Amino acid sequence: MENSSNNNNNEDVLSAPSTPATPGTPGAPLFGGFKGDNQHRSAFGRKSLLKSCKCFGVEEWAMEEGRLPPVSCSLPPPPVSLVRKVGAEFIGTLILIFAGTATAIVNQKTQGSETLIGLAASTGLAVMIVILSTGHISGAHLNPSITIAFASLNHFPWKHVPVYIGAQIIASICAAFALKVVFHPIMGGGVTVPSEGFGYGQAFALEFIISFNLMFVVTAVATDTRAVGELAGIAVGATVMLNILIAGPSTGASMNPVRTLGPAIAANNFKAIWVYLTAPILGALCGAGTYSAVKLPEEDSATTHEKHSTAGSFRR
Questions:
Q1: For residue 35, which phi and psi values (nearest 5 degrees)?
Q2: For the sheet containing 56-58, what is the strand order?
Q3: Which residues pair with 72 in a beta bridge?
Q4: pLDDT at position 72, please?
Q5: How far apart are CA 158 and CA 136, in angstroms?
Q6: Using CA atoms, how far apart are residues 245 and 36, in angstroms rounded to an integer?
Q7: Which DSSP letter does residue 70 get?
Q8: Does pLDDT of 228 surpass 60?
């Protein structure tokens, strides 16, 4: 009779209702506030199987007699295959290049009806919707500069860098040639080149600065657990829009080597191509490094581990 009573008590403890974790809050309490007598403690014991379960963090026993402290569970996100990541990166980059370049072509074709604000809003909105739709799959880099900067700071594996950049380049070329067919013979508006009278050195400096701004914001919302990651798409899209308003009339505000490379190949216009292949990468590296230097230190090793497991992407 005593054994059956103990079993019933144990079943009562195990079947106690749990408090579900808040969505988007890793490590939120899943179980908490179990109360029982000494028999319950002996049933679980210090050698509980929860100790060997990697997804559970079991705290030390409470000093209060007969009380089991809260047990937290932080489940990792389901694994995503590299094929899915590369596929999402390809589609996202294709949408971004098609939208940003198409707006510039339409603006040229209609004698400036889109205006600078329209050009900035189009690209900023494209970045925002792609991050919101594919960020949880591939991280939505959409830009070799961002991929290289993340890898340089150990937020992204180097072995995946060539595959990501390859997908971004192919997507850019596909988008550019699709636009060439759709808007033929108008293609000059989609190529980012320095404006007349704007020197190559000035173009390099301006592209470096706006790429720095972009990567500073991207590093904040994608790698810092204190930043509001849920607003990453809005923050990055707004930064792109701001940069285009600043540099659009002078350099085209590329900020992205593949934004320039695909249209340049399709239009056979490689003017100052070296500026748009080097300045964004160097600016992104400096932007990421600067934010990593000024951000607040992590509170403990657990937070650091969580940051590295989710960093380099817009998945929070």
A1: -125, 145
A2: 29-31, 71-73, 56-58
A3: 29, 57
A4: 52
A5: 20
A6: 64
A7: P
A8: yes
Identity at 18, one-letter amino acid code: S
The answer to whether residues 206 and 62 belong to one domain is no
Q: Are residues 173 and 226 in the same domain?
A: yes
Select the highest-mean-pLDDT range: 14-28, 41-55, 147-161.
147-161
* Sign (positive or negative) of CA dihedral 170, 172, 173, 178: positive
The verdict on residue 282 lying in a domain is yes
> Does 218 share its domain with 235?
yes
Q: Residue 57: its pLDDT value, please?
A: 44
Residue 221, classed as helix, strand or coil, is: helix
| Judgement on whether residues 8 and 89 belong to the same structural domain of the protein | no
The CA–CA distances, whole Å, from 298 to 119, 195, 211, 216 equal 39, 44, 26, 18
> Phi and psi (nearest 5°) for 20?
-65, 150
User: Domain range for residue 58?
Assistant: 2-73
Q: Quote the pLDDT of residue 75.
A: 61
What 3 state SS string does 135-173 have?
HHHHCCCCCHHHHHHHHHCCCCCHHHHHHHHHHHHHHHH
Backbone angles phi, psi at 269, to 5 degrees: -130, 105
**316 lies in a domain?**
no
> Above 50 in pLDDT, residue 301?
no
Residue 187: what pLDDT?
73
